[in-house]
Amino acid sequence: MHSQLCERSLGIFSKLLLISIGFFSSQSVLADEGGVPFWMSGQYASMAAVPSQPGWSLVLMPYIYSGSADKSKNFQHGQSINAGLSARESIFLFQLGYSAEEKILGGQPYVGIGWGPGSNTTTAFASVSSVNTEFNKANSVTGSTDIYPLASLAWNKGNNNFMTYVTGDIPVGTYSSTSLSSIGIGHAAMDAGGGYTYLNNTTGLEFSSVVGATYNWMNNQTNYKNGIDSHLDWSLSQFVSQNWQVGIAGYVYYQLTADSGSGDRVGAFKSQVAAIGPQIGYLFNIGKKQAYINLRAYKEFWAQNRVEGYAMISTISIPLGK
């Protein structure tokens, strides 16, 4: 039963996934300048490195985050220094992707582009600028993310799957250097890395991990340059039936080099955070086509120079045909 289940599952996931990496870069999970990174931790989970089959696909990702930092923690945004931050964000991301039939270096190529609408509310107990000091300052914004292109290659060798990717940030989203709340990050970025998925075709056991690093260009509106960031997303799950999968997922985010630039007023400001939580996956049909939904929730800990809180992410993978 497990063998048939896993073979079927691998075939389905091969058609539905790569769970795309390039566009999932929500900005409320704070790090770097004002605590805002390019990478949205937790965007990868089960079957992260399984090759996709040729054709078009659509990935949807609703994302909700809520977090805070106490009054002793200072965050810079533009010309203001802010203490006692709290942030709430909701984003609905879309990625349209295509896998070509021709292999490259024996791997399955994939290209995609992503974008999404969203809203962000950020408050600060105190916000100090060269002009004045405000207490209980709050900003809310509704708009869109930056644009996130992606290219990847993935290989399958029995129970083992491997993937490499490059992605980036085209800074066209909703951003203001004078507002506490933004959805875009205000600068270009490039991220590259690789992933691995183990799927045991006998037991139904699955493990995935993706590791990468982000290079950030200068934010010309603030003359602030984020340091190089590293990140790890991981997942451990078990297929318990032909449709259901349960497990845990987590992430680690660690800034490797210091922030810089003439606009940097807080020094190195290296950040870090980790998280863990449950996940559940379900296979279902849309007409004659099979689709997949994965829901996971994270509780953060080990935070430094960023807010700490909770995130909920749902990934919905839909095949669109060749």
Tell me what the structure shows.
With 322 residues, the chain is mostly beta strands. Helix content is 5%, strand content 56%. The protein has a twelve-stranded antiparallel barrel with strand order 1-3-4-7-8-9-10-11-12-13-14-15. β2 (74-77) and β3 form a beta hairpin. The radius of gyration is 20 Å and the shape is elongated. The two termini are 31 Å apart. Residues 12-31 have low confidence and may be disordered.
Q: Which secondary-structure class do the elements indicate?
A: mainly beta
- β-strand amount: over 45%
Task: Please count the beta strands (DSSP E, at least 2 residues each).
Answer: 15
- Order of adjacent strands in the largest pleated sheet: 1-3-4-7-8-9-10-11-12-13-14-15
Unreliable stretches (pLDDT < 50, length at least 5) are: 12-31
Terminal Cα separation, in Å? 31 Å
Question: Can you summarize the main beta sheet?
Answer: 12 strands, antiparallel, barrel
Give the overall shape. elongated
Oligomer: single chain
Q: Specify the number of helices.
A: 1
Radius of gyration: 20 Å
**Mean pLDDT across every amino acid position:** 89
Order of helices and strands: HEEEEEEEEEEEEEEE
Helix content: under 10%
